[in-house]
Amino acid sequence: MIDLEILKELSLRTPTKIVLLVLDGLGGLPHPNTGQTELETAHKPNLDRLAAEGVCGLLVPVSSGITPGSGPGHLALFGYDPIRYTVGRGVLEALGLDFDLQDGDVAARCNYCTVDESGVITDRRAGRIPSEKNAELCRKLREIRIDGTEIFILPGKEHRFAAVFRGKGLGGEVADTDPQKVGLKPKEAVPLSPAGARTAEVINEFIARARAVLAGSHPANMILFRGISQRPNLPRMSEVFKLNPAAIASYPMYRGLAKLVGMKVLDTGSTFADELKTLGAHWAEHDYFYVHYKATDTAGEDGDFARKVHAIEEADALIPKILALNPDVLVVTGDHSTPAILKGHSWHPVPVVVHSKYCRKGGTKEFSEKACAGGSLGRIRAADLMPIAMANALKLEKFGA
Amino acid sequence: MIDLEILKELSLRTPTKIVLLVLDGLGGLPHPNTGQTELETAHKPNLDRLAAEGVCGLLVPVSSGITPGSGPGHLALFGYDPIRYTVGRGVLEALGLDFDLQDGDVAARCNYCTVDESGVITDRRAGRIPSEKNAELCRKLREIRIDGTEIFILPGKEHRFAAVFRGKGLGGEVADTDPQKVGLKPKEAVPLSPAGARTAEVINEFIARARAVLAGSHPANMILFRGISQRPNLPRMSEVFKLNPAAIASYPMYRGLAKLVGMKVLDTGSTFADELKTLGAHWAEHDYFYVHYKATDTAGEDGDFARKVHAIEEADALIPKILALNPDVLVVTGDHSTPAILKGHSWHPVPVVVHSKYCRKGGTKEFSEKACAGGSLGRIRAADLMPIAMANALKLEKFGA
After folding, report:
1. For A370, nearest residue in chain B (alpha carbons)
2. What pLDDT sits at residue A316?
3. What pLDDT shows up at residue B30?
4. What is the distance between the alpha carbons of residues A334 and A59, in angstroms, rounded to a whole number?
5. What is the pTM of this model?
6. d(Cα A85, Cα A62) in Å, to the nearest integer?
7. Nearest chain B Cα distance for residue A16, angstroms
8. Does the structure show a pLDDT above 80 at A96?
9. How far is the alpha carbon of B236 from chain A, nearest alpha carbon, in Å?
């Protein structure tokens, strides 16, 4: 992985266009009955055509054996070493809810949860209350005032919301209050460094007040805090890569991540067809588009092999709409693997295809984990993908004389 | 290679079990008459089966083109960057002779050698004297006293022994006194840093006294010092990986290395069958087993192609005994290559197979250098193997949100 400082010196502004299509959680594992992965099972003529015309390989998102969260998985695809550049989950969530996070703000990802009379958690997700109920409860939480601190409560989907605290002396990181298990009481907020002392105090006070406000709101009668963090100072893609990048993603976290590296987040609908309509509508305005497709990951997380296969097929069917725009470089990959049989993210390297006029195609016949393992691109760090895409778009100058 | 500090945060204690079988010096080169390597020549149905069911690749022990010693070769397999974590040969030898090396002890690997009247070396191994003679001479050397220094003399096999010096002011590293060639005199012990000054003095005094003691013991009438070093402070596997690891190895050096990373060294016999009996007997007690098989390396070092083939076949025949224990992850590889035609360690990457339920098998048909070069695991740093084994045993949490 080359240093961003070097890329900054080499990158050129040109009219060529790059599209990065992220099929979230793309990589899989064989179904026990068939011995074929989700990707091998899917009928995906367009991805296979890309693989035949392009160059394939496997991406290692973080490092061998390491299972990435969505944050590190995406930062790597955007060209950032995910070990060096880390982002707290609270920050991602707040950004994804279109909150204009400022330097110094402390953000947390929160859940409504259920506690019994003795304060012990019986459901960490409050029975996944409807989003409307969530919004109503968030309005109540907004009435909580703490001297010297501005508080923003941002409802998300089902039981999820984000909380942002703004004020003097709020710094550092604070440990989660979510014990990650039912049968335990929520933990106190504890600072992870002296800088977080005041932050922990404020959060503990907020939680105590929230408990009183929510006392009659069973099953959502308590809250849990996770990923309490501040916005990291990431170099912007416009500075490093001299791109004018846009993000098309319907889920909050991915929009948030895109904002963090300075992408313009475009308004879009919730289906892949909507996203591609947005891509077409804004085609002239940007030279880099990150398009996020969530259905593959959701199906994998649910352990639904057939639905993941179907999600791949649905994405495949619309790929001609991207090709019709004639991008100079089209990259299709995932931010990590989510094998249905593991019902979660995994460490397995992720298939990738880079399709461009200059990609030195490698004779791969289909787009699958096995075919990509034999692809000419080899097995590379995911953060190496961005320089490869830039190069294929003829956007990088020679290094050295 | 990910930092051990990060692995420490991600690793989980679980009931799953990992077996690392090290066929020492496994990798080879083609026989000039047949064009087939030792591994390609051997009849090894069990290794081939593992390769077909698992995922194969090549391990680079240290770095491209670098021939590793057994120390770096093994440290890498245990997950430690062998360039960052180095271990002196003296330390390894002393540990392998079951010596309880303490912080600050200076250890050396020594040889009895033969010198002529003028002190010039005529045989660096003193005609490989019998181990009994070695033990007798070591008893004589034990009578040497140096003020302020405690001295431990530990007989090994044939002409080899270890010397350990304990006392105030003994620090740093000291260069070898073995000139590595006959026809030269032994060198003076010279400190490699100011901290080694007193150590060099003590060793030179010891050698002078030993020369007098051994004057009548031709062919073992002098001694040579190598690998003069102190125990490095390696993080223990129990801390980094939250494992309760055990080592099964009949040769001193490998037991020593295992101790250095905190493995429990199990008593075992000298054959591979003995080692596997030990594995079975202690199966319930540990979650990680390092099993060392020496015969492949010895044959390679002797330049005996046929014997190395036979050694591979002997190991292969007993692999079902490991599989019968049903390990969650079985890894078979070597610490380095030892091609018979080179009669020594080499820089060539080492075949590896990772066999587990979740390994994403890659369709490799046999276990050989060539097949592994096309394996889905790719060509990876050996120190990346441990996170991969941990991941396959579901012993690593997700990195980042």
Report:
1. B362
2. 98
3. 98
4. 9
5. 0.89
6. 11
7. 33
8. no
9. 20
